[in-house]
Specification:
- This protein is of the alpha/beta class.
- The chain has a single domain, classed as TIM Barrel (Alpha-Beta Barrel), CATH 3.20.20.150.
- Helix content is about 40%, strand content about 15%.
- It has nine helices and eight strands.
- Strands 1-2-3-4-5-6-7-8 form an eight-stranded parallel beta barrel, surrounded by four helices.
- Helix 7 links the parallel strand 6 and strand 7.
- The longest helix has 21 residues.
- The chain is globular and about 50 Å long.
- The model has no long low-confidence stretch (mean pLDDT about 100).
């Protein structure tokens, strides 16, 4: 198993050591799809000084770019398409392999609008974006989010069912133990989607802290991942309080629990 951290590359560059295998950045912060190409390339050149690669990016769509069209909420289709295509092109250029669609605010179903229609619109985006992702050799992964952050596709069950209906698109599923814990989902829900899971995020439920801060037990989740044969990446997506002192113990804590399961 390969373990990484979610963090700005500038913060990672200041670390005294690199006990993790890769870095996960933000689409909005690192790929900067609405900034000129030269701006992105300046960041990319700087990031290449890191001893580990940026292999994954998350937070695909910003909150200021709503996706659900309603009679009272207009969406800017040309802007969305331009943004996503630019993100994929820059991801390929930077060697990024997975882009995660979380973006709870952007995919929020507005009040009084039919929830099923909102899900259908998200499905249409995924089908269309998956074609572009394949062209740029990018794996697109959908992230279920806790109920506090959005009102669409919150659970593995909901997201898994949607992606199963879109199997021909190749869009995959991300597991996030923090969101699952907040939603009272069972770790065994992972077992239902062995062929869809492509990426994993972890953090403690309490304060969304770094693993090991309060001794959270990730072994039930890891056991389920072992059972489905998952062996790709696990990223720490947490609220770092003092990243230079927290990263080493957090990675060691996860590696130990992964082996114990």
């Amino acid at each position: 198993m390969r373990f990484g951290i979610c963090a700005p590359y500038q913060d990672a560059m200041a670390l005294p050591s690199f006990p993790f295998d890769y870095l996960e950045e933000s689409v909005q912060r690192f790929l900067q799809p609405e900034q000129p190409q030269a701006v992105f390339e300046a960041s990319w050149r700087e990031a290449r000084r890191l001893p580990v690669a940026i292999e994954v990016t998350n937070s695909l769509i910003p909150p200021t770019m709503p996706l659900i069209a309603t009679p009272t909420q207009q969406i800017d289709v040309p802007r969305i398409e331009r943004y996503v295509k630019t993100a994929f092109a820059r991801a390929e250029q930077a060697g990024i392999q997975i882009i995660v669609l979380g973006s709870g605010s952007a995919r929020m179903c507005p009040p009084a609008f039919p929830h099923k229609e909102a899900i259908k619109q998200i499905a249409d985006y995924l089908a269309r974006w998956s074609e572009w992702a394949r062209a740029y050799h990018i794996q697109l992964a959908l992230e279920p989010l806790r109920f506090k952050e959005t009102n669409t596709l919150n659970t593995l069950q909901e997201a898994g069912e949607l992606l199963s209906s879109l199997a021909q698109t190749g869009v995959m599923l991300q597991v996030d133990t923090f969101h699952m814990t907040c939603n009272d989902e069972s770790p065994n829900d992972i077992l239902h989607w062995p062929s869809l899971i492509a990426h994993v995020h972890v953090a403690e439920k309490r304060e969304r802290a770094a693993p090991g801060t309060y001794g959270a037990d990730f072994r039930p989740y890891f056991s389920a991942l072992h059972q489905i044969g998952y062996d790709q990446r696990i990223s720490i997506e947490c609220r770092w309080q003092d990243m230079p002192t927290e990263v080493g113990p957090a990675i060691a804590f996860l590696r130990k629990q992964w082996e114990m399961r």
